[in-house]
Design brief:
Elements (H helix, E strand, L loop, with lengths): L6 H7 L8 E2 L7 E16 L8 E3 L4 E3 L1 E6 L2 E18 L6 E9 L19 H5 L2 E2 L1 H4 L15 E6 L10 H15 L9 E3 L5 E3 L18 E6 L19 H18 L8 E3 L13 H4 L15 E6 L9 E5 L2 E10 L9 E6 L19 E2 L9 E9 L4 E11 L3 E2 L11 E11 L19 H7 L21 E2 L6
Parallel strand pairs: 8-11, 9-12, 9-13, 10-12, 15-22
Antiparallel strand pairs: 1-7, 2-6, 2-7, 3-4, 3-6, 5-6, 10-11, 14-16, 14-23, 16-19, 17-18, 17-20, 20-21, 20-22
């Protein structure tokens, strides 16, 4: 038998057109489509890069499908049928060499009129290049055959391709396949969408920027820039098909950046009347772009924030403008700092609180710290908008007044604050350590000898500019600051 896709997927969810998803499972049974058509198209994957012969019987005669596109061992083949049918049979003398065959019966459209004109050179706005949109020239697009231009983008439609997220591990090749299938098999002048978003956050120019869209039915293409996620993102319609895929933080961050940048370039209002999912535009009975994407669209109406950002929302430790923390030599005090994740990425075990200056040993580090230069990770891994607490202690290791600053970092990715020069306000504890020694046999890990003073005091002084008996000249202005939002963006 053959895999027959539901009506929800075949017609509505694929309204823009994606690579075929009907999979050939049995060469001896007829291929039955839920929709009639006049063209049979298939993507054939073979064991090698040699051509394969696929023949199609439409009820009248056997016809050889013609190869119209190929990347390595995968070929797009198609043949026009004598009549409109919903059932065909296929055969191949190369059957043993075929690993997979995905097929579709469709009605090709003739989208373009008149003579094709070449795309306008450099039409992709510089603002989109600046946020990393990969141009058609860079991904190897073929010539467009579109002729109808668009000079007034005033709304946006969000889609998904309802198929795979990549092709043999390559997003670029999937984009190339989409263009070939749209143009060669479906009869479009180019990819239906203006932009495509990959699972890794990459953004690809689809149909050239100044050409009329073809993705949103119901008479909604006029001035409607189409943005499509590569993949299948509906928790119901995509089950047992290509997905459902769960959009990554990188994917959602790129979508947010793209939508908001487009809104600024074209003066598109950022609200639910002008930016909505395919299914929410009139006369579109579809699951596209899937509930896993639709529920995120309102998040993109405000300016995009950085990937990693935080706001201090609570601290059991008294901060700089409050009373100092008073300790005896060797005494520790436990506490926490709580932050709200105000960035676009979720935190994980590599999101750490750390003393400043960066990668320099603190003179008040506790025995529960990960190291002298790293405090700890949060007790939870909050998604954007949620909070996480960092539980730790500080220990009096040297007599004097210590102004200990703290910052956040995503280990091996970025320090919260590295966003092109924007300096975060300081989070500072004022710790006063007396010369009186705590009578507990000393501090674990410190050799105090007979004097009760750490033997490595001088070395620690030299290693950490933030711990002296008087505030450092370089750091004194920062001590006057108040706690505020740490608003930072991953350096791209």
């Amino acid at each position: 038998m053959f895999l027959i896709l539901s009506a929800l997927f075949i017609a509505p969810a694929l309204a823009g057109g994606d690579l075929p998803q009907n999979v050939l499972l049995n060469w001896d049974a007829p291929l039955i489509s839920l929709e009639e058509g006049t063209r049979f198209a298939a993507v054939v994957e073979a064991v090698d890069e040699e051509p394969v012969l696929v023949e199609v019987f439409d009820g009248f005669s056997w016809q050889a499908a013609q190869e119209v596109f190929r990347i390595r061992n995968r070929a797009l083949v198609q043949t026009d049928l004598r009549e409109t049918v919903a059932e065909v049979r296929v055969r191949s003398p190369d059957q043993e060499r075929i690993l997979n065959l995905e097929w579709e019966i469709l009605v090709p459209r003739n989208e373009f009129q008149g003579q094709p004109r070449p795309p306008t050179p450099g039409v992709l706005p510089q603002e989109l290049k600046d946020i990393g949109v990969i141009s058609r020239a860079d991904w190897g697009a073929g010539p467009t055959t579109c002729t109808t231009t668009e000079d007034d983008w005033y709304r946006m439609a969000i889609h998904h391709t309802a198929g795979n997220q990549d092709d043999n591990g390559s997003i670029q090749e999937l984009v190339q396949w989409l263009q070939a299938y749209f143009q060669q098999s479906r009869g479009y002048c180019d990819i239906a969408y203006q932009f495509l978003i990959g699972w890794d956050g990459s953004v690809w120019e689809g149909r050239p920027y100044d050409y009329y869209s073809a993705a949103t039915g119901g008479g909604n293409n006029d001035g409607n820039s189409a943005i499509s996620f590569l993949g299948c993102y509906d928790s119901v319609a995509c089950v047992d098909l290509a997905g459902p895929h769960v959009p990554s933080d990188e994917t959602l961050a790129s979508a947010h950046n793209l939508v908001y940048t487009l809104s600024q370039i074209e003066n598109i209002p950022t609200d639910s009347d002008h930016i909505k999912g395919h299914q929410d535009w009139p006369d579109n009975a579809t699951a596209c772009p899937g509930d896993l994407i639709s529920e995120r669209i309102p998040d993109w109406f405000s300016p995009p924030g950085p990937d990693y950002a935080a706001t201090l929302t609570d601290s059991s430790f008294p901060l700089l403008e409050e009373a100092p923390i008073t300790l005896r030599l060797g005494e520790s005090v436990d506490g926490y700092m709580e932050f709200t994740n105000t960035g676009l990425s979720s935190w994980d075990g590599n999101t750490r609180l750390a003393p400043l200056p960066r990668d320099q040993a603190s003179l008040v580090y506790g025995t529960d710290w990960d190291s002298e230069t790293r405090v700890t990770a949060s007790d939870e891994h909050p998604d954007p908008g949620n909070t996480g607490r960092f539980y730790f202690s500080v220990t009096g290791r040297e007599p004097g007044v210590h102004f200990q600053e703290f910052g956040l970092l995503q280990e091996n990715v970025i320090w919260f604050g590295d966003d092109g020069g924007v300096e975060p306000e300081k989070i500072v504890l004022r710790i006063v350590v007396s010369e009186e020694q705590l009578d507990t046999g000393g501090i674990a890990g410190i050799d105090t000898g007979e004097t009760g003073i750490p033997a490595n005091l001088e070395e620690e002084k030299g290693a950490c500019a933030c711990s002296t008996s008087q505030p450092s000249k370089n750091l004194w202005p920062s001590f006057l600051g108040v706690i505020g939002a740490i608003l930072i963006r991953r350096r791209r």
